[in-house]
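User: Can you recover a sequence for this backbone? Please restate the input before giving your answer.

Assistant: Of course. Working from this structure:
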């Protein structure tokens, strides 16, 4: 019967489970022969309702997960759901199209929580690393140089640290892609009802989170139901075109908001129950403070056409074309922002509804957010991005730093992410790798609290004493890494034998001395130079993990190694404070 599609939803869920189960069987079969093998999938193609990619299930059962760097949402899903010991990476391919792209690509993988970077082919395409004579192409030169920089210590430093998610949880359900495919057959004129439009809409909202200097993590309904998502752990819960919401999840969301959480949804949340059946009344309207059409009628209409009615008193009007002045305080409960003709929507239809529920707040975005993808590239006022930023700030979720441009314009396509390791923090900023033709931006970074700051990539300290801000140029080919430490790095010391025999394995100890505190986890880069060599020995050079500022490694000299004086260069990766030692091989 119309509106009762649970049997079809069940079939689609079964098909995806069978696809995942096939991966499970192959993984177990391979690991019967090699217990330590990393088994999984790589290079998944376009994500759509027929692909079988339930990313939460696939990543939970496979410990190798690779995606194309251009499939941004897939990468974020893998980052959110992959196991701690999984091999995670991305293929660069044509996205890393020039020197800036190939230079930034390994850093982009690192910032996004990956522990590897992949190249798809050695020959046959126009972005190959090697020429026919096996010399390196320009693509290879750029990539391998950047990869060497990452592997020379920053990679180990950030992989050891914990990536922060800003306390923003985004609900993920494969069921919603099925609902979008069904809706496309009911509303063919809609701009975002099919699964492709759903993912574009979804991407726009989450790009807005990144542009606002915040991060997010995907969660599943069970996380909310089981109480793992609370206002204390995740002040913001986002539902982007989340049509399928079970009764159990509705109750959990209601409790989450009542206890102080901020819920951000679009106008279509909760049309269906957890099995994909039409609801007679929309499940979340009480929390959202709206009254929306239910049943097939509501499901087949785009919420941006204005079918939402307001159940409480509203005050305050604004045209979305002039929303760049909105801030967190402006999003007070009871606010209704309405569209005008300049927005291309129905005049007078509510754009945004903010409603108090218990101790928390629910914000309904009653418009398609996909114009954000264009405005972030063009620049200027960026009203859609401003809405996302204000909603996050209103929930107390702040950016890791404040970034301003010298021309007064809102920064474009800048992602911030912070890694924490004890009291040390690592602030990473990159201009969106996928925004390929965006020019460099000159601006300034301001920290919420002053810190001792080191520019990791430049290998120098930023300012003197405690620093609050500094000038910088942001560019696609210039990813930035800053170490924010609670102390100054005073010295690096090395302990190694004065001499060794060829074929002997020697021990090298490194320690990092600090002032103003106790040393936490550091990485010391050890570069080993053979007698007369200008470049480090590839096999002997390595990173030394120094827990509590102290670490140890070995150099296994070969019987055929050159005799004479070898040079050991040691450098603290975070601060670039360095020292040297010598060792004579006889």
């Amino acid at each position: 019967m119309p509106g009762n599609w649970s049997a079809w939803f069940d079939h689609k869920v079964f098909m995806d489970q069978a696809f995942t189960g096939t991966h499970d069987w192959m993984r177990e079969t391979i690991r019967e022969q090699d217990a330590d093998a990393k088994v999984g999938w790589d290079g998944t193609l376009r994500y759509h309702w027929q692909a079988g990619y339930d990313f939460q299930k696939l990543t939970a059962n496979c410990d190798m997960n690779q995606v194309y760097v251009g499939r941004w949402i897939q990468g974020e899903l893998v980052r959110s759901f992959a196991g701690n010991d999984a091999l995670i990476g991305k293929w660069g391919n044509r996205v890393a199209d020039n020197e800036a792209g190939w230079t930034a690509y390994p850093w982009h993988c690192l910032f996004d929580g990956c522990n590897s970077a992949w190249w798809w082919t050695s020959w046959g395409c126009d972005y190959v690393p090697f020429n026919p004579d096996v010399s390196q192409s320009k693509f290879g030169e750029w990539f391998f140089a950047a990869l060497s920089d990452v592997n020379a210590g920053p990679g180990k430093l950030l992989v050891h640290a914990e990536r922060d998610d800003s306390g923003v949880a985004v609900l993920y359900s494969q069921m919603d892609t099925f609902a979008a495919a069904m809706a496309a057959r009911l509303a063919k004129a809609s701009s975002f009802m099919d699964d492709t439009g759903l993912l574009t809409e979804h991407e726009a909202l989450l790009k807005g989170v990144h542009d606002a200097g915040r991060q997010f993590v995907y969660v599943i309904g069970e996380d909310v139901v089981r109480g793992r998502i609370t206002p204390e752990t995740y002040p913001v819960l986002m539902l982007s075109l989340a049509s399928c919401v079970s009764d159990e999840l509705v109750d959990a969301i209601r409790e989450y908001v009542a206890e102080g959480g901020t819920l951000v949804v679009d106008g279509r949340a909760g049309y269906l129950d957890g099995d994909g059946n039409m609801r007679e009344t929309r499940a979340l309207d009480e929390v959202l403070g709206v009254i929306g059409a239910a049943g097939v009628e509501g499901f087949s209409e785009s919420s941006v056409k204005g079918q939402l009615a307001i159940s409480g008193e509203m005050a305050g009007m604004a045209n979305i074309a002039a929303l760049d002045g909105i801030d967190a305080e402006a999003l007070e409960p009871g606010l209704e922002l309405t569209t005008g003709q300049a927005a291309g929507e129905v005049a007078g239809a509510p754009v945004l509804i903010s409603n108090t529920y218990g101790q928390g707040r629910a914000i309904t975005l009653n418009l398609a957010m996909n114009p954000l993808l264009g405005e972030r590239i063009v620049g200027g006022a960026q009203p859609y991005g401003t809405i996302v930023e204000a909603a996050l700030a209103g929930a107390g979720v702040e950016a890791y730093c404040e970034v301003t441009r010298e021309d007064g314009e809102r920064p474009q396509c800048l992602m911030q992410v912070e890694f924490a390791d004890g009291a040390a923090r690592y602030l990473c900023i990159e201009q969106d790798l996928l925004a390929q033709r965006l020019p460099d931006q000159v601006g300034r970074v301001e920290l919420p609290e002053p810190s001792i700051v080191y520019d990791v990539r430049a290998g120098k300290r930023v300012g003197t004493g405690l620093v609050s801000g500094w000038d910088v140029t942001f560019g696609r080919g210039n990813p930035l890494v800053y170490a924010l430490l609670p102390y100054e790095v005073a010295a690096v010391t090395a302990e190694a034998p004065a001499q060794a025999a060829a074929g002997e394995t020697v021990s090298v100890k490194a320690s990092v001395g600090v002032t103003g505190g106790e040393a936490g986890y550091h990485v010391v880069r050890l570069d080993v130079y053979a007698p007369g060599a200008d470049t480090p020995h590839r096999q002997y050079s390595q990173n030394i993990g120094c827990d509590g500022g102290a670490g140890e490694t070995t150099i296994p000299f070969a019987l055929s190694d050159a005799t004479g004086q070898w040079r050991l260069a040691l450098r603290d990766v975070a601060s670039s404070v360095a020292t040297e030692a010598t060792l004579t091989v006889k």
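That completes the design. The CA atoms of residues 379 and 412 lie 6 Å apart.
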